[in-house]
Write a structure and sequence with these properties.
By secondary structure, the protein is an alpha+beta fold. Helices cover about 35% and strands about 20% of the residues. Helix 7 packs antiparallel against helix 17 and helix 12 crosses helix 14.
């Protein structure tokens, strides 16, 4: 009987299949490890994940605290076991802390996974589970500063608008105020009123990250940066004679309240927020270049934020007409941006051109105060060179020392900033803007303010920022 020899071709095919299966298995193990290390929390904490809410069946939702341990949200448990989420500061932190029982927003959503996870010691956890007693959830320690939040809230008062306070060198958000607001303690009772079509106040909208406004003259930081890039050797030679209006064909651009600034260098035009000078300057720019720069500065795209946000928009292209160029160059037209975006641009200028990713959670602790997880500053995009950031700082400093930002001028600390008065509808008062940082030589704090329908940025928004700077630098 003849013995059949092995088929070499068949053996090679079997070997190939074995390698493929082994390779797939290795990839599966690798992805499983990646998921556990990097993706587990984001997937579990996804708002569409119903499984996470079931954690509440055996865990009492943990506390949210300020950076110095003051309670921003806690769960009160009655004798019958009924749980009530309590917000000790009421409306003060309404938007940034958020709520969780009519959907999830703010830090209640961002920290949901940690708040519904318990790291009490193993013996206590075992005893509680055997006794059908809920374990206490972990505490989320935020970057928020109660004193700065209160200062921002009080300075903004009953006016509509938003305030963001950040550390430019770390990205820590120290305060975030949006008004009108709501009381999260009575949200369920007030819900129907808040979402009613007849309600025009939009109290649930976090204006700091979701409100879109024409940036007005704060956008001149972008316009002047593009001009410097296109004219690196000659930009200081720019001059303009302002008589309060700039006419180009059938179009007229007016300075705020028709103020005539006289002969202006670029530095003076920036300090005095001269619309005529920047309209004329805008016609010298490459429209496509301004569009490219705006996208580099996070317009029309994603932003490194963990809270819900609206995308800022810049639409002027290379085929723009004269009127669109004139309007866009001074921060009007179709350009829209959020206060948070303006704060990030300002923080990048203060930080030598690098944007640190804004963040709100500093660390997570168990109920006994033991640290479970710590968050660290992360470098984000390089929005401009260090030299460009230094030049913008120089220009923004002159806004305060000799221009429209005099309301934040003080001998106690040097401030750099930019004001803005943004038109948005004919017959209505302008939105008032201020964005800036201090101290100029060693920036520690960035403050951005928008006050809706209130007038001049220098007269209305800058004093709000001054109140916050005063509290910070007096401690």
């Amino acid at each position: 009987m003849d013995r059949q020899l092995p088929n070499p071709k068949a053996n090679k095919n079997i070997l190939r299949i074995t390698y493929v299966i082994a390779g797939l298995f290795v990839c599966l193990i690798g992805y499983f490890g990646y998921f556990l290390q990097f993706r587990r929390e984001s997937v579990i904490n996804n708002s569409y994940n119903a499984r996470l809410d079931r954690f509440a069946d055996r865990i009492v939702r943990g506390e949210l605290q300020s950076h110095d341990g003051r309670i921003l949200a806690r769960t009160a448990v009655a004798e019958d076991g009924a749980e009530t989420r309590v917000y000790p500061y009421g409306p003060l932190f309404a938007h940034v802390v958020g709520y969780f029982h009519m959907g999830k927003t703010g830090l209640e959503a961002l920290g949901n996974f940690y708040l519904l996870t318990s790291h009490v010691n193993l013996i206590e956890k075992t005893v509680n589970e055997l006794s059908n007693i809920k374990n206490i959830g972990d505490k989320v320690i935020t970057t928020l500063d109660v004193d700065l939040q209160q200062a921002a809230y009080d300075a903004l008062g009953d006016r509509r608008g938003a305030v963001i306070v950040m550390e430019p060198g770390t990205g820590k958000i120290l305060a975030m105020v949006s008004r009108p607001d709501f009381d999260p303690n009575t949200l369920e009772q007030d819900w129907d009123m808040l979402i009613s079509g007849e309600n025009t106040q939009a109290q649930l909208l976090n204006r700091a990250t979701q409100g879109l406004y024409p940036p007005g003259s704060t956008f001149k930081m972008v316009t002047v940066l593009e001009y410097i890039r296109e004219n690196p050797e000659t930009w200081r030679d720019f001059t303009f004679d302002c008589d309060g209006q700039y006419e180009c064909g059938d179009y007229t651009i007016s300075c705020y309240h028709g103020n005539a600034h006289g002969s202006q260098t670029l530095e003076q035009a920036f300090a005095n927020s001269c619309n005529g000078a920047f309209a004329a300057l805008g016609l010298e720019l490459n429209p496509g270049g301004l569009y490219t720069l705006s996208e580099q500065l996070l317009f029309n795209g994603e932003q490194p934020l963990s809270l819900a946000f609206s995308k800022s928009s810049f639409v002027m292209g290379s085929d723009a007409g004269v009127w669109e160029i004139l309007q866009t160059s001074i921060g009007q037209g179709s350009t829209q941006m959020t206060p948070m975006h303006n704060a990030m641009l300002t923080a990048a200028v203060a930080n030598g051109g690098t944007l640190m990713k804004p963040y709100l959670i500093e660390r997570v602790e168990n109920a006994a105060g033991e640290e479970i997880h710590k968050f660290f500053p992360e470098s984000g995009a390089k929005l401009m060179t260090a030299e460009e950031a230094s030049l913008l700082s120089e220009l923004m400093r002159r806004v305060v020392t000799e221009g429209t930002g005099s309301a934040v001028r003080t001998d106690a600390y040097p401030v750099a900033g930019k004001t803005g008065s943004a038109e948005f509808e004919t017959g209505k008062e302008t939105h008032a803007w201020f964005t800036g940082f201090a101290p100029v030589d060693n920036p520690q704090l960035t403050v951005t303010v928008v006050v809706e329908e209130s007038g001049s940025g220098g007269q209305i928004a800058a004093p709000v920022a001054r109140a916050i700077f005063d509290v910070y630098f007096s401690r």
